[in-house]
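Appendix B.2, paired examples.
Example (i):
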Amino acid sequence: MSPLDLEGINEDAVSAAEKLGADDAVALSARSTDKMIRFANSTVTVVNHVEEAELTVYLAKNRRRAIASTSNLESASIRKFVRDLFDSMKGLPVSEYVPLPDKAQKFSPSKVSYDKKLDDVGEVLPELAKTAITSSHAAGGKRSAGVIDAGVVTYAILTSTGTRGTDARTSITLNIRSFAQKDASGHGLSCSSTLSGFDPTMAGERAGCDAKKMVEASEPEAGTYEVLLSPTVAANIIETVAASASAFSVDAGTSYLAEKLNRKVAAQDFNLTDHGTVAGGLGGRVFDDEGTRTSVTPIIQEGVLKQYLHNLTTARKWKTRTTGSAGFVTPRPWNLEVGKGDSSFDEMVREMKRGIVLTSNWYTRFKNYRTGEFSTVPRDGAYLVENGEVARALKGMRAGDDLQRILSSVRLLSRGREWIEWWEVDTPTLCPWVLVDGVKITRAYE
């Protein structure tokens, strides 16, 4: 058996588990191919090609459960791995065990987020990087750094109840930061599940344009502002909202959405949905970790919290059905979608009396997960808006709020939306520009 024969790997694992007497077993294997190009000082510095494969096994016996992963995928090693995992359960406490569904399912690849052109895109990555760099320089950046990642991930699942299937997805992502001077920077991002949807020119232009505008930026006055969040910044915040919608987070006492089902948690026009698979989505698959079909899960509709994300265990506790969101341990989102509005970016700026435009952020940290209190540090392009016009560039500040207040204060959403995934946003999110009232801004060094 080839070490990259995912279905054969799963057969080895489940067969070994059944011979040992496991009550339930799941083998979930994945093979990934990642092509990466990195550039610094506007010059390509690293070209890399990485192929990886991994097997994750879930076992249950006498209401004890264990989960582990391995990258040693020879048949003999898999059998030993499963045996060791099975033996480890003897010392574990009894848990809330929910058996896998008796009815076997067979899953076929969705293909909605798969592009054959990204199977062999390595040779064009240097040209795509050059396009982004050239565009950033033309827009005002003097030097640029960043990375392009293009990858294919293939999944296969097999359970002891006979459920099996495969799925695959592709993605290509560019992050570029441009500098007009040492402390004047801009950030550009382009994410797509297809090569045709990838736009390095746009990302480079944004980075270079913001870098140029940030020359002579100054600190703002501390206070409360209207804040216009770019899709990049908004997606970072929205991802934490979706994490709070996990039933595991609610049960663990770390969710600000606890005890708020069917209650108002956001503005009337705010909608948030999770998709197992969706056209253009960079994440997800047709089956979750337990072999349940993934689905479309409305989390927030017209400002009302409609659903927590569930796996089999949390669904039984909450006396509902799984949403196809497993995680063996924690239910999780796959592809998030924020509903669009009816405003353009320019219209949103004109609506601002005293506000700030934020295009990028990092270091989002929580003071209290239970109340949703957080802060984040804006960076790259940030601008003061006075009476509907951009007045000057800003730097050296921190934004603080709590999740419920910020969602409840959403005033406008843009028509245009963008897919966002990067090192500050793990869950791919289709997100508009978001105008929020009453955000607290402090100077970063006070």
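Example (ii):
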Amino acid sequence: MATIKPFRGIRPPQELVEQVASRPYDVLNSAEARAEAAGNEKSLYHIIKPEIDFPEGTDEHDPRVYQKATENFQMFQDKGWLVQDEKENYYIYAQTMNGKTQYGLVVGAYVPDYMNGTIKKHELTRRDKEEDRMKHVRVNNANIEPVFFAYPDNATLDAIIARYTAEKPVYDFIAPGDGFGHTFWIIDKAEDIATITAEFAKMPALYIADGHHRSAAAALVGAEKAKQNPNHKGNEEYNYFMAVCFPANQLTIIDYNRVVKDLNGLTADEFLKAVAEHFDVEEKGAEIYKPAALHNFSLYLEGKWYSLTAKPGTYDDNDPIGVLDVTISSNLILDQILGIKDLRSDKRIDFVGGIRGLGELKRRVDSGEMKVALALYPVSMKQLMDIADTGNIMPPKTTWFEPKLRSGLIIHKLS
């Protein structure tokens, strides 16, 4: 069962939140962070992308960069740009995209729950990425950015959230660039805090939706601190890390699409003929074609869109991994025909989040940068949870969640 606790959040004063808040560290590069933070000394990028305070070209993994993150985090607190709440609270963080709002509870998630599998994952993590975030957590002694969890739907929690969100929020702003709304409330009543803790204690599992590397890093640092403390009791703040938990029924997974640089020596006709062995292929013309259902794919090649429908027998509906469209396309098109064996390391393939639209696939092929594009029907939350529940791991680049959590609305200190 899931263990959570409230915590004393470190947050910007209301009038500074828009200056402090930023996109997550991993959705933009150093040059983009430098440009977005230009002229804004209060931007969280000075803490999560501190290489922007060094000359261009400075390695973001340079020890001086991590040290700068620590200095900047302390400076933000010294100057009152970040202030710690006096008591432990839960918080509500709502995101609005295209008129749809999802409401998350900001909690301290329990490190042992990650270690024992109560917090379930559906992706593999890379050790180098884990280590980068572990260093960041260690030097700051804090979870600067939250992770993104899903929880099973719960009417009691829905009622508490509805009551607080009917009140005036602490933060309420539209983020520049993406135009998404970000709204924030504090749950400070003792009886509501107790109810939330008790409701989570009934849940058999929580699910990592987005932020597998941050989750791993936060949990590993917490476990590390427990091992290093000769007087470890189990109730220390480092036993928890910051997560925003959303009801699964409010979340939407967006498609995650593929573009490939060449046809592995085949002509377009030879490639389409090979595809037709396992798929019903239908030419759709120049108008963008979006996959219509599970096991239907969209292909863009030489100025034309095609509908591909996987033939019966090419997948097993009883296999939670084998039934995924990402598995079908990886096995039957990318591997068998195009010779792409490892999605993580092959330089011939790239991935495009569905938030960019299928026009981005067309653009990258038409420009000559890529030869062919493949669009997939998005995975469902039920599929994700089923896979996590069976202890399976999804293939790389399967899920894309949007909107991303804004960083800087709240921070969790480990002591």
